[in-house]
Each structure stands twice: as C-alpha cells, then as structure tokens.
Amino acid sequence: MDRFPFPVRVDSYKSYVTSAGHLGENYAQPTVLADMTHDMRLASEETFGTVAVLFAFDEEGGKLFERRTGVRLFPVAEVLEVGMVGANTGIISNVAAPFGGIKESGFGREGSKYGIDEFTHVKTITIGGLA
C-alpha cells in the first residue's frame, strides 16, 4: 500500500487505517481513517478519493443528535462554511436541491432553479419611442 489517490503516504497514517487495500501505484481501495486529529493533512485537504476520515466530536457534536428530531443539526450546520450538509444519509444531493461548494471545495451551484443562475447573465435592453 503506497499511496492514496493524491500524493500522501499511507504509512504515515498506518496506525489510523481501519480498512484499506491496494490496487496499483495511485489507487487505494475505500479506506476509513479513525481517531484523526485536526492537525493532520487530511483534516484540511480534500482527498477526491474513497477515504472517510473520522474525528471525535467535541461536546457540541456529541449533543448533535441527542433529540429524536435532530434539531441540534441546524445551529451547527449554520456555522459551517460549506455548500452542503447531510445527516444520517450517504447521498446529500437531490435534483431539486442546489449542488455545489464554497471556498476550496469549489464555487458555484448546479441543479435546481439556483443552478441555472451560474450559466446566465441578466441584461436589460430598453428601447424608447416604441408605441
């Protein structure tokens, strides 16, 4: 096992790998990294690969789903600077919802009525004297 889909040495995370396989120089099978810390490179960079990174929650995160309705999700989601937030789902995209990111995750939206705005420019043309 040499590399993740981006140039990060797997052996530097060996003690954290709970599930991994190797299929060639630039491919790692779906991998779960547990007990990660926020000072690790994977905490601040996207892998664009099949890597799930797990962190321990602080007290706010621990209370996130304390209630059956999950209402604690909304205050936490509001302060996250991300394009999409999902809870208890593996798929957070939907044809009726705008899809996209912000900051280093990309800019813009596609899908839904908001997605068309990324591909259009509003222009007003006024012609006087027409009766």
Automatic annotation (TrEMBL):
SUPFAM superfamilies (alphabetical): ALDH-like
Domain Aldehyde dehydrogenase stretches: 24-60, 72-125
Keyword field: Oxidoreductase
Molecular function via GO: aldehyde dehydrogenase [NAD(P)+] activity; succinate-semialdehyde dehydrogenase (NAD+) activity
Pfam families: Aldedh
Biological process terms in GO annotation: carboxylic acid biosynthetic process; gamma-aminobutyric acid catabolic process
A cellular component annotation (GO) from this entry: cytoplasm
Protein name: Aldehyde dehydrogenase family protein
Annotated organism of origin: Aspergillus parasiticus (strain ATCC 56775 / NRRL 5862 / SRRC 143 / SU-1)
